[in-house]
Automatic annotation (TrEMBL):
SUPFAM superfamilies for the chain: ATPase domain of HSP90 chaperone/DNA topoisomerase II/histidine kinase (SSF55874), Homodimeric domain of signal transducing histidine kinase (SSF47384)
Name of the protein this chain belongs to: histidine kinase
GO cellular component: plasma membrane
Domain Histidine kinase: 461-687
Species per Swiss-Prot/TrEMBL record: Undibacterium baiyunense
Coiled-coil features, chain-numbered ranges: 423-461
Regions crossing the membrane: 206-225, 232-253, 265-286, 298-317, 323-345, 352-372
Length: 693
């Protein structure tokens, strides 16, 4: 995955680099008497040699633009192009050539000029001073060159250029490196170079002083409070100081001027080492294993990667893992910010200071990483961003350490008060729990009383409703037994029919009670199928023909949509047939039960976009507003009464509502007292083949 990220970054960097190269020819840099320092940014011309085989002679012939003399130059190499800004090409295997044209147009201008080039960690940098196609002098620097062999005792490479005449001079610089390729240069007179060097040394001294002071301060803290976080912080501070000392060139200048490999090794190990020790410090300081164990595991994985990268560097594979190390370091710094914010928000105040410190380091380190990856060009800010950010970060982390120690002191001081308050809180919590349990017990008793009341109502209704038909059955059977010798066949048939009706009435009551119990316990199982609701309505109405004739009632089955005016009509719904039959049976039987003699019952069917609607309208007494509020409750006794003394259990509409909703439909009632009732049932349509298509 890191190879893909690296490839994408390199492509982006190269495109930015390529876009920064103009096609125009660079102007000659005029050196005037008033000129003492020149930033050579945007004064260079650049040429990329992907083969790495071009020599200075090849470059000079190519620069003459004479095709007859360029036999040795590869065909894919073009001429110099104007470079806008400083050279920044990320990690590349190409060799880059830079060209600068100089001319003392003012005879009073200085004849001696010093060129300071940055950075030191480029492997091989060679400069050729050329006039009239002749090489006047050659200069060399880079981390493959000993500092002791440099022309000037200075932390950076300095080339001394003598321009004695007013003719045009050209400086050709060849750059080859396995580390991140970025290059910038300044041209000074000797006096201006001394002044600038003194100013830069003062800034470096401030940085080193801050770092040493913070290291000493935390060393004292470590002896007073033995803590892993303090140890990791000291290692991080010391490593940061060493890396800054090496990057600024002071390590090689003052300590290892003869050893090339030491400087290069420290530079190669800098990023993975900082990644490792910063990860260890953050994990310990923010107490991640305790507060965020999953995040702590991620940091342990980063630490393992850092160690593996360090091993790869020691094995000589720095060029393959350098970009990965910088990407991981950047990711870690970015991730620390939200982690610190979250921990600070949770009450651990040093988390906020870590966020501020990391932000400062990210700001400086980001400039360095983006410069190394070639996204931005080298500048003073990107050159010293690491030192500035590191100094701010070390100061803020020292404050965070002090704040953490204060927190530990405060926690110890509050421990006694917390222990004292524990008993008080425990007593309050116990009292609160007792009150809560008392409240729950009261609610439970109220619920049990309600259930007991419902049970008594249920038993009372069952006993009352079953008593009359059972009395009729017993009386008629006794009468038939006593009058058996003298009873006529017509009387026997009449008695048997009355016994059958009473038995059916008892069965109806028991069925309703069992249905309610099944629905309350969740044991109702429905199987949906495509059912013709028109045919089902006919079946229910035919079942009640005797009841309709007994009360001289008329009924109509109407269709509001002409689509269903065909013969026979059909309207398919997706329902359970038995449940749907029971819903229609209850509603139509109610319409018959509460309709006065000689009135009309209307069943209106209509189809809508997603459901079928059945409206059952009677011309009975209607319902009051109070009745409509408890219409679908169990055992509800309404103000309206059956017109012919029919029986009512108060369960039918409750069953209708539960079954309708179980089938995915709805049921409602529209009524005005004195003007009858209209029950509206909406059931989902069955999907036909056309609708599926």
């Amino acid at each position: 995955m890191h190879k893909v990220i690296k490839l994408l970054l390199v492509v982006l960097c190269w495109q930015l680099f390529d876009c920064s190269i103009g096609r125009a020819t660079a102007k000659v840099l005029a050196l005037q008497s008033s000129t003492s320092a020149v930033n050579l940014k945007s004064h260079w011309q650049v040429l990329e040699d992907k083969s790495g085989a071009l020599t200075i002679d090849d470059i000079l012939r190519l620069d003459q633009a004479d095709s007859s003399q360029t036999e040795r130059i590869p065909k894919n190499v073009n001429g110099f192009k104007l470079l806008n800004g400083n050279l920044s090409a990320s990690y590349t295997r190409s060799v880059f050539w830079l060209k600068l044209d100089l001319q003392r147009q003012d005879p009073a201008a200085s004849t001696e000029w010093w060129m300071e080039v940055t950075p030191n960690m480029l492997d091989d940098v060679r400069a050729y001073h050329v006039k009239n196609q002749n090489i006047i002098s050659t200069h060399r620097s880079g981390d493959h060159t000993r500092f002791v062999d440099g022309e000037t005792r200075h932390r950076l490479a300095v080339y001394r250029l003598a321009i004695a005449d007013t003719e045009k001079h050209s400086i050709y610089i060849r750059i080859q490196t396995s580390s991140a390729l970025y290059f910038s240069a300044h041209l000074y007179t000797p006096q201006a170079f001394a002044e600038t060097s003194n100013f830069q040394s003062s800034l470096m001294g401030v940085f080193y002083g801050i770092m040493l002071a913070m290291i000493a301060y935390n060393l004292i803290l470590m002896f007073g409070y033995r803590d892993n976080a303090n140890g990791f912080y000291l290692l991080l501070s010391a490593l940061t100081l060493l890396v800054g000392f090496n990057n600024n060139g002071h390590l090689a200048l003052y300590f290892e001027p003869d050893n090339i490999w030491v400087v290069e090794l420290i530079q190669s190990l800098a990023v993975p080492s900082l990644l490792l020790f910063y990860s260890l410090f953050i994990s310990s300081f923010l107490q991640l294993p305790k507060i965020m164990p999953n995040i702590a595991k991620g940091f342990r994985i980063l630490q393992i990667f850092a160690v593996l990268i360090m091993i790869a560097v020691l094995a000589g594979y720095n060029s393959y893992v350098a970009a990965t190390a910088q990407i991981l370091a950047f990711i870690q710094m970015i991730v620390v910010i939200p982690i610190g914010m979250l921990i600070g928000w949770r009450g651990y105040r040093p988390g906020y200071i870590v966020v501020a410190a990391t932000t400062a380091w990210v700001a400086g380190g980001l400039l360095v990483i983006l410069r190394n990856l070639g996204v931005i060009e080298s500048s003073w800010l990107s050159e010293y961003g690491f030192q500035i950010g590191a100094a701010i970060e070390i100061i803020l982390l020292a404050l965070a350490q002090a704040d953490r120690i204060n927190i530990i002191k405060n926690e110890n001081a509050l421990a006694q008060a917390q222990l004292l308050s524990i008993s008080q809180k425990a007593e309050q919590e116990l009292e609160s729990k007792i009150q809560q349990r008392t409240k729950e017990m009261a609610e439970l008793i109220e619920r049990l009383e309600k259930l007991d009341k419902q049970k008594n109502e249920f038993l009372g209704i069952a006993a009352h409703d079953l008593k009359n038909p059972l009395t009729g059955i017993i009386g008629l059977s006794d009468l038939m037994r006593k009058l058996e010798p003298s009873i006529t066949p017509e009387q026997r048939y009449s008695y048997l029919e009355r016994i059958s009706r009473s038995g059916n009435r008892m069965m109806h009551i028991i069925t309703n009670l069992l249905d309610v119990n099944a629905m309350e316990s969740g044991n109702t199982k429905l199987e949906k199928n495509a059912i013709n609701i028109v045919e089902l309505c006919h079946q229910v109405l035919i079942q009640y023909e005797h009841n309709l004739r007994a009360k001289e009632l008329q009924y109509q089955l109407n269709f509001s949509d002409t689509e269903y005016a065909s013969n026979p009509p059909s309207l398919m719904v997706s329902v359970d047939q038995n449940a749907c039959f029971q819903v229609l049976d209850n509603l139509i039987s109610n319409a018959i039960k509460y309709s006065p003699i000689g009135k009309l019952i209307t069943v209106q069917l209509s189809r809508h976009e997603e459901f079928a609607q059945i409206c059952i309208q009677d011309q009975g007494q209607g319902l009051t507003a109070e009745d409509q509020q408890r219409l679908f409750e169990r055992f509800s006794k309404l103000s309206s009464v059956p017109t012919a003394g029919e029986h009512s259990t108060g369960l039918g509409l409750s069953i209708v509502k539960k079954l309708t909703e179980a089938m995915g439909g709805t049921v409602s009632c529209e009524s005005e007292f004195g003007n009858g009732c209209c029950f509206i049932v909406e059931l989902p349509l069955a999907q036909t083949r056309d609708s599926k298509d």
